[in-house]
């Protein structure tokens, strides 16, 4: 397999989609490592395995409708394997394997047989101390956008998953790319005032567009810098409530086809008015665990 991913919207050919089978059931509050999951546990609304599987299979069906090769992780009993995005990710022709939080380290075992089929020269293990999760890494041509936390936040919050050492490693590994890093708001307990990853508050769409939410950025100047990189007419600004419901965590199959939730009425209407084809997939149960469509995918090949 010749890995190739340079942006978020190129025609998708091959993708890893997570699984919800045997995901371990409802955790204790002390076992939650993101505020959305914690909220779901506290309110008694944590999703069931049956509902999660149903939603993910509907997503899989849409991907297969577009003749995309969908690869699933091997099942590890009692392990949450829904969010494939974070455990490894492709930039250009390289698969980067980052150092992720210990709670999630076993997830990588489920794709080891897949990784073994790649050219091992294209598999890059990040060094100790360099921390990144794939949801914080967003590609657009010659630019890599990264959400991260400085030490004072990284050492304080469970939801701070990418550090400056991780940013610097990506800069070093891809010297031909422009790397822009943005600090994100973090909270382990308040899902309405925390961006778990950059894709929870920003995502490019189409040729020139993007979805963006100011509330996810720790520094207003970072948000303004990013927003200025897109024409205002191609920019979809969402508010804090939209960010909480993960409106920016939709998933592009191509420049013109986007997978979104049916509940995102305002966003979907806007996209369709702009000429996008919107494939609506119910995914509200998956969202209760801290991620949505982009979080549960790991693109391997985009044209």
Number of strands: 15
Give the full name of the CATH homologous superfamily: L-arginine/glycine Amidinotransferase, Chain A
The domain count comes to: 1
Strand order of the largest sheet: 2-1-15
Q: What is the percent of helical residues?
A: 10-25%
Kindly report how far apart the N and C termini lie. Answer: 13 Å
Summarize the structure.
This protein is α/β, with parallel strands linked by helices.
SSE diagram, text form:
Layout: E1 12-17, H1 35-42, H2 49-65, E2 69-71, E3 89-91, E4 94-97, H3 112-115, E5 123-125, E6 137-140, E7 143-148, H4 151-154, H5 164-173, E8 178-183, E9 202-205, E10 209-212, H6 220-228, E11 235-237, H7 240-244, E12 251-252, E13 257-260, H8 265-273, E14 277-280, H9 284-287, E15 297-302
Provide key terms for this protein.
303 residues; alpha/beta; L-arginine/glycine Amidinotransferase, Chain A; three-stranded mixed β-sheet; 9 helices; 15 strands; globular
Characterization of the model:
- This protein is of the alpha/beta class and 303 residues long.
- The protein has one domain: 5-stranded Propeller (L-arginine/glycine Amidinotransferase, Chain A), CATH 3.75.10.10.
- Helix content is 23%, strand content 20%.
- It has 9 helices and 15 strands.
- Strands 2-1-15 form a 3-stranded mixed β-sheet, with helices on one face.
- The relative contact order is 0.19.
- The mean pLDDT is 96.
């Amino acid at each position: 397999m010749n890995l190739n991913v340079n942006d978020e919207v190129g025609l998708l050919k091959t993708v890893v989609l997570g699984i919800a089978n045997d995901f371990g059931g409802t955790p204790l509050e002390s076992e939650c490592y993101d505020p959305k999951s914690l909220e779901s546990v506290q309110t008694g609304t944590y999703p069931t395995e049956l509902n999660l599987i149903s939603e993910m299979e509907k997503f899989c069906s849409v991907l297969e409708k577009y003749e995309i090769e969908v690869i699933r992780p091997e099942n590890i009993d009692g392990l949450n394997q829904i969010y494939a995005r974070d455990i490894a990710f492709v930039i250009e022709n390289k698969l980067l394997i980052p150092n992720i939080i210990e709670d999630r380290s076993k997830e990588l075992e489920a794709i080891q047989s897949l990784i073994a089929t790649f050219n091992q020269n294209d598999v890059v293990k990040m060094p100790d101390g360099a921390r990144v999760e794939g949801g914080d890494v967003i590609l657009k041509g010659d630019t890599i956008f990264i959400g991260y936390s400085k030490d004072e936040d990284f050492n304080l919050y469970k939801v701070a998953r990418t550090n400056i050492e991780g940013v610097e490693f990506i800069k070093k590994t891809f010297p031909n790319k422009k790397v822009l890093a943005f600090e994100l708001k973090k909270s382990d307990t308040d899902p309405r005032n925390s961006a778990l990853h950059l894709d929870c508050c920003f995502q490019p769409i189409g040729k020139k567009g993007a979805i963006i939410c100011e509330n996810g950025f720790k520094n207003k100047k970072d948000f303004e810098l990013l927003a200025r990189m897109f024409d205002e007419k191609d920019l979809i600004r969402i508010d804090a409530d939209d960010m909480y419901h993960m409106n920016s965590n939709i998933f592009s199959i191509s420049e013109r086809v986007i997978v979104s939730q049916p509940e995102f009425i305002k966003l979907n209407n806007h996209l369709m008015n702009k000429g996008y084809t919107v494939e609506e997939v119910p995914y509200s149960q998956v969202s209760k665990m801290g991620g949505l469509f982009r979080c549960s995918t790991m693109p391997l090949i985009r044209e």
